[in-house]
Write a structure and sequence with these properties.
By secondary structure, the protein is an alpha+beta fold. The protein is built from 15 helices and seven strands. The chain has helices at 2-27, 31-34, 45-60, 66-92, 120-138, 141-166, 170-173, 186-202, 207-212, 217-245, 251-304, 323-329, 333-336, 350-361, 402-417; strands at 174-177, 180-183, 308-312, 318-321, 366-373, 379-388, 394-400. Helix 5 runs antiparallel to helix 6 (141-166). It starts with a helix and ends with a helix. The relative contact order is 0.07.
Length: 418
């Protein structure tokens, strides 16, 4: 979990740095900072600003104090508002004056029709991540679960653009709405990837991430299969495309090879996943068997120990007792369970029970000789050692010293006669 939280902070730094680099590029007209490759679509100023705000909000999510959370929420509101206004510009074919409010961009060759405006898919991505960041600041389990759902949608939105660049498919990148064309820049798509991964890693113990990070077999399988599910189809598709571009085969043949490759890869993945699950199941059965054997050994030692053994709750009401203490006191097991320690000592010892309980709760061992009262009212002396167990319950070992006392008395009488 700590590794994921550090990864989330690292992702926030990458997003902030990437956005800041683009802002520097626009301020000083450095083309290489605006776009990864010359000639490709540039990341817009508002896009870079939203990335900086989003990265700062993501970094502040680690703050447990209210001030940090409130600041993160304010930054997320800023991202959401800017994305919402951009979407409104697209839907209403309006210009709200936000596209070039920081740095102007000249219109070149008629494209884009609205210079300085972030792409439609970019605005949609920031609307999703902005709302998701707002939900993360609330901290409740339900809010985190909904936030992760929005984050996954934003991630797939970016992945669609990355696939468009990988496969040279302009229709996946060049989106048109009401006659206005817009392209998501390649650096925008990759920064969205870092942002969404960082947001998912920010709350690894809740929602979707709790399932993925679970130590159980389902979580282990998810962590092993997800990389294959994301990377293998994209990689195989790219290889298939390169072969077709090189003229090695026709479109139909390429599609058939791609489909069979997907079948083969996922068949192997299913086999490996099944083997892993079987391995975990076998280990669990071995652990359960060892636990049962351990419990049986404990129960055997407990029941056949020559000394009396009692298990009590923190208030000294008996939860369990072995056969030896039942014989000493003359009670059956069912009769003894539920009694309090004061029910089996002589009246003169009752006040000492509270003192002994205080000692035991202080994690100290109690060792003392007590006078016990049997069910029939007879009295006997016993040596008691009591302590607190790891689960918070109390365990007492009771040894009848009646015979030892009788032997000591006989010895004293014998010495007196001599």
């Amino acid at each position: 979990m700590d590794l994921l939280l550090r990864g989330s902070l690292l992702a926030a730094g990458v997003v902030i740095g990437g956005g800041a680099l683009v802002l520097v590029g626009w301020c000083f007209d450095i083309a290489a900072f605006k776009s990864v490759v010359p000639g490709l679509v540039t990341m817009k100023v508002n896009t870079a600003l939203c990335f900086v705000l989003s990265g700062l909000a993501l970094g502040l999510l680690r703050e447990d104090r209210g001030r940090g959370r409130r600041l993160a929420a304010g930054l997320a509101w800023g991202v959401t508002a800017l994305a919402a206004m951009t979407l409104a510009e697209y839907s209403m074919r309006a210009n709200l004056g936000i596209d070039q409010m920081l740095v102007p961009e000249a219109q070149i060759g008629g494209l884009p029709a609205t210079p300085g405006r972030m792409a439609l898919t970019t605005a949609l991505g920031f609307a999703l991540t902005g709302v998701a960041l707002l939900l993360l600041t609330r901290g409740s389990a339900r809010a985190v679960a909904v936030s992760q759902g929005w984050t996954v949608l934003a991630g797939f939105n970016a992945l669609l653009a990355i696939a468009g660049y990988i496969y040279r498919a302009p229709s996946l990148i060049d989106i048109s709405m009401r006659g206005v064309r817009s392209n998501m820049a390649v650096n925008t798509a990759f920064l969205f990837g870092f942002l969404t991964l960082g947001m998912l890693a920010a709350r690894p113990g809740a929602g979707l991430m709790a399932t993925i990070m679970s130590p159980n077999a389902g979580g282990v399988s998810a962590r092993r299969l997800l990389p294959f599910a994301l990377l293998v189809p994209l990689s195989l598709g790219w290889l298939r495309l390169q072969g077709q571009i090189a003229g090695l085969y026709s479109t139909n043949f390429g599609i058939a090879v791609f489909a069979m490759a997907i079948v083969a890869v996922f068949t192997i993945v299913v086999f490996l996943g099944s083997r892993s699950l079987n391995h975990h199941a076998a280990r669990r059965r071995l652990a359960e068997s060892a636990l049962r054997e351990s419990e049986e050994r404990y129960r055997t030692l407990f029941n056949y120990a020559p000394d009396g053994i009692v298990i009590a709750d923190p208030e000294s009401y008996y939860l369990d007792a072995n056969a030896s203490i039942c014989r000493m006191l003359g009670y059956s097991h069912d009769e003894l369970v539920g009694l309090h320690a004061t029910d089996i000592v002589v009246p003169a010892e009752i006040e000492q029970v509270g003192l002994a309980l205080t000692t035991i709760k202080a994690r100290a061992e109690h060792h003392r000789e007590w006078q016990f009262r049997r069910k029939d009212g007879s009295v006997f002396e016993a040596e008691v050692r009591a302590t607190m167990m790891p689960d918070g319950n109390l365990m007492g070992v009771i040894r009848d010293i009646t015979e030892r006392r009788s032997a000591e008395q006989d010895l004293r009488e014998s010495e007196a006669r001599l």
